[in-house]
Each structure stands twice: as C-alpha cells, then as structure tokens.
What we know:
By secondary structure, this protein is of the alpha/beta class. 41% of the residues lie in helices and 16% in strands.
Amino acid sequence: MSKFKVPYKIYLDESEIPSSWYNVRADMKNKPAPLIHPATLKPLTFEEMRPIFCDELIRQELDETTAYIPIPEEILNFYKMYRPSPLTHAVFLEELLDTPAHIFYKFEGNNTSGSHKLNSAIAQAYYAKKQGLKGVTTETGAGQWGTALAMACSFFRLECKVYMVRVSYEQKPFRREVMRTYGASVTPSPSMDTAIGRKINAEHPNTTGSLGCAISEAVEVATSTEGYRYVLGSVLNQVLLHQSVIGLETKAACKKYGIKPDIIIGCAGGGSNLGGLISPFMGEKLRGEADYRFIAVEPASCPSFTRGKFAYDFCDTGKVCPMAKMYTLGHDFIPSANHAGGLRYHGMSSILSQLYHDGLMEARAVEQTSVFEAAEMFARVEGILPAPESSHAIRVAIDEALKCKETGEEKTIIIGLTGTGYFDMLAYEKYNNGTMTDYIPTDDDLAKGFAAIPNVNL
Ligand SMILES: *Cc1c(COP(=O)(O)O)cnc(C)c1O
C-alpha cells in the first residue's frame, strides 16, 4: 500500500455510525465466566443485580448469545455530536521511524470528556433515564470516566454523584471542575458519607484513596438511595459492548480503503477500549474468517495480564461488589506511588481475560518512561497530544514498526488512541523534568496482593 492510496484522515459519514453494537460473546466458544455472588458463589441472577444496576444494562450484561444489539435512536443522536471518529494514517510517524509498516490510529479524544468513555456513559445514562431513575453514582480515578458520565447525565437530566479518588481530587482540580460544570456532585474518596468510607478512613487515616475503595462507596450510596443505581465505566461486559462502536467504525473505514490490519494494539486498564476496538475483528478470528494479532498493553507497574492470576476476585477493595473471574493482582493492589500513567485498576474485563487465557490475544507490559518517550515522539510529528494511557499502545506500535524496519515486512498496524493528554500535564511535567522513574513490582510486592485473592475454584 503506497502512502497516498488512502487519505491521511479517513472520515466516515454520519450515516455510517453503526446502528447496532456487536457482542463478541456471541462468537466465543469459551464464554467469559459469570459474575458470582460472594456469599453463595452462584452466578448472579437478574433479580440479585437489580438493586445495583439498571434493568436493561443487566440484560446486556447477561446476554451472551445476541450478536448485534440495536443502538437506540437517542444514543445514536448523541453519538453524532462527536462520531464517527476518524481513522488516521500516521504517515508522519512512519516517516520518522523510517519503517515499511503502515500505521493507523483511531482517535477517541475529540469530545469534551477527552476519551472513549463517553461511548458507554451516554448509553448507561440513557437506560437509567428510560427506567425512570433519579440519578446514578460512580467512582472516578483521574476523572475521565466521571467527566464522561457527568456530560451524559446532564444531557438526559439525571443526577450524578461521583466518588473521586482523593489524591486526584486534590491534585487534579480541572477534571473535577469540568464534572461540576456539567452538574455532577463530586466527593473525595474515601469520604465520611458512607459506612465503608468511614471504615477505610479509620483503618488507614492518611490514605489517598484508590479506585477499588471509591467503587465500594459509590455502590453503597446507589443501593441505599431511592431511585439511584450504580454505573461503571470499564471492566463489565456491557461496557465492552457499547465500546464496540469504536471497532465497528474502524472496520468500516478499513473496508472503504481495503486496509487489512495485521496487528491491532490498545492499552488495557479495565479493558473496555481495547475490547471495543478489537471485538468485530476478534469475531472474524473466532469464526475462522480472518486472522489478526491483538496486543493488550499495560503498565509494568500494574501488570494484571502479564503477571496477574486468572481467578475469581472482588472488583473492589471494600468487597461490596460481586466477584469476577479475571486476570487480577488482588483487590488490595495499589500501584507504587511514582506511577503516573493511568491504567491502575487491579483487575481486567472477564471477556478479555478469557480471550487472553485461550491464546487469542497477546499482552505486553511497558515502563512509564518509555511510554512518555513514545508519547512525545508521536505528539511532535502527528500533532495530537496523547493521553498517557493511550501512549502505552503507541509505545508498542512503535516497537512493532521498528521490528518491521529490521525485517522489511510491510505490516499494517492499528492503534487505539483513546484520549487526549491535556489534563495530564503533571505527568508530562515529571517526564520533561527528568524526574519520572520506573518501578516494576517485585514478586514479593505482588505476593501480598495475591494473598488477598479469595480461594474460589469454579
Ligand atoms: C479510562 C481510560 C483508559 C483505560 O480504560 P479501559 O477500560 O481499559 O479502556 C484508556 N485511555 C483513556 C484515555 C482513558 O480515559
């Protein structure tokens, strides 16, 4: 493929936004393990999930047979505000690397929340509204998910209570204020509003909080407040389903210009963007119609896939949530204090965990200084300032493109570029000042997290 056979940016038409989401579970022979109740160890039923999640979202969570689920018109209309997102041919990066590889990226950062998370936030807010609920609660780390949910809730006039990891609440005021601008209430976690927050504060008086702890608080508030439910921005099957809009658009753009990807690379925190990006391609692979390599990229300081255990574990520190079978570092795991690049969740989507376990996907762990090096290379030639999370995928794409330079292979690589890095300048500042360091947890460090994983053999 010569450089100019395809446009630099491939824009789809508004009418080419997919009209259904694709549910990869329908094509998986080994289905992902179900969420189970921590007391009974039985798969959670629809009725058991109703106090926590919205009804229609539970149906989507449990549906492992319907391949295509229509996107309601109200959600499609909202998607039109910022979709389709372009697939860009990274010609300037190819030139810089002097590689025969063809590199493309799907950029999801062109909306105010700055990431792909809005794709699922708007769906979840829609189903909550349709059920006649008053509001939703959630947790947020650095604030991308909280921001996306705040935007979605304000669109459908729903209340939105966000529990924000305390260290981010204090150190990252900008996203906090975006959320409040869209009408959300934002509380630093652990707070004194909830039983679990008071317990964690009493046991760890100076804690700066964690995602797992904020989840526990948000679930407690949702289940104890009339007309409220809890929503989650990653990990769950329903979130990967909504994010399939990324992969479906990518596939449509590829089809338009005869692009045949060899390798598809995405960063993995809880697995939603990667799951969404690869789903339609994975479907082809599962049905034996095509073959692709998929690479999940994670921080070396939070290596769920590459060093975690495939086991049932709690989704949150406070153990108020159901248990999921996934690659996990243990629900108590918190990355070392110098970790700056996001993707800090201890577990991973059950769908991706199963696919990885079955050898259908690869995973790589990368150190943060090399991630920021890749981010700066990319920004300087392609213009977009990437989110640190997205830059994990850029790192591995660059490594793969450099391998092609060695071998002379003309591979086609697609990167999931999940978001913008505008709100991550404290991390960039550390890198620019030369004060960013890498820490790879030792086996002993990880053993502490593994020790807390419950002994469930199903
Ligand atoms: C949240 C986030 C991620 C990681 O979440 P996944 O569920 O693994 O996709 C990646 N990139 C950006 C920009 C994010 O905001």
